[in-house]
Design a protein that fits this description.
Layout (H helix, E strand, L loop, with lengths): L2 H16 L5 H74 L3 H9 L3 H11 L22 H47 L5 H24 L4
Helix pairs in contact: 2-3, 2-5, 2-6, 5-6
């Protein structure tokens, strides 16, 4: 066997023993595969959390609507109760003007407990003697209407819940935007693999890697459920 062939055979055997040294294109291919794997997981993660926040938004909007309905019912019942007290008070005034104390006492017993507290406080202001006395129990600081207060509280809760639902929707939209960025990365890598020019392929890969890093950092700062 010629000496030159022996030397070439020895070099090939040596390469087999020490392993194949990967080329730059092979390194880029491996890097692209790694980025694709990361992007695939990140896309699934972002889509999952977007769906979660969409569900959160629907729940909060539904809760807000329920609270509004309960507030409206409480406001209606509270208004009816206040109207009944006012009508009863006006009838009491007529009975007092007619000097019918028995009938007046009957109307006093028909006041709601809350209105009765304000009525007693109003009498202490000597309204029939002093012109600067409040016009009626409803104008006294002691007057309270639990149903109207409950309605106001429910309305405030409904507003806060609706605002929270709007924030949940905005968060879901943020996750969707990141999904779009990740889809752009997939497009760039797929496009890069079509090019045989190494610098073009490498440039597209670098851009895709930077976008991936941006997406991962951004999504890590988003709230999660």
């Amino acid at each position: 066997m010629p000496e030159g062939m022996n030397v070439e055979l020895a070099h090939k055997l040596a390469e087999g023993e020490h392993g194949h040294k990967p080329s730059r294109s092979e390194v880029v291919e491996v890097a692209e595969a790694l980025v694709l794997a990361v992007v695939a997981v990140a896309t699934a993660w972002s889509g999952y959390h977007s769906a979660l926040w969409d569900g959160r938004q629907a729940l909060l909007y539904g809760t807000s609507a329920r609270l509004r309905t309960e507030a409206a019912v409480a406001a209606m019942e509270g208004g009816q109760l206040r109207l009944l007290d006012v009508v009863t008070f006006n009838t009491w005034i007529e009975a007092k003007e007619n000097k019918d104390e028995k009938l007046a006492a009957l109307y006093v017993r028909r006041f709601s407990p809350e209105y009765r507290v304000a009525f007693d406080a109003w009498l202490k202001t000597e309204p029939f003697m002093k012109t600067n006395a409040p016009a009626g129990p409803g104008f006294m600081p002691e007057y309270r209407n639990a149903l109207l207060e409950q309605s106001e509280k429910l309305n405030n809760e409904a507003t806060a819940t609706f605002t929270e639902g709007t924030e949940a929707r905005e968060t879901a939209e943020k996750y969707v935007r990141i999904t779009v960025v990740l889809a752009t990365v997939l497009f760039l890598i797929a496009l890069a693999q079509r090019f045989k020019i190494r610098n073009v392929r490498l440039g597209l890969f670098v851009v895709a890697t930077l976008l991936t890093a941006y997406a991962l950092i951004t999504v890590a700062m988003y709230p999660r459920l």
